[in-house]
Amino acid sequence: MNIILEGPDNCGKSTLANAISAATGWPIHPKEGRPENHFLLLEKLRRYEQLEGVIIDRHPIISGSVYGLMRGDPEIP
Q: Does the pTM of the predicted model rise above 0.90?
C-alpha cells in the first residue's frame, strides 16, 4: 500500500507528507517533475508500480490526468 497526495501548489502536500512519514516511518518518494514524452511517462509509471510502503507527493497518472488537461497536454495512454 502507498499513500498518494495530490493537490495544487502550496496547499500543504509536503507538510502532510512529512507528518505522515513521521507517524508511519514510511519514506517520502521525491517529486520527479513532468515527463517530457509518453515513453518517459510509461517508464516512470513502471517504476511507480514497484513502490511499496511509500508516500507519493503527486503521482504522474493523477497529476497528468488532472493538470495535463488544463495545460493542453495529450491524454495519457
A: no
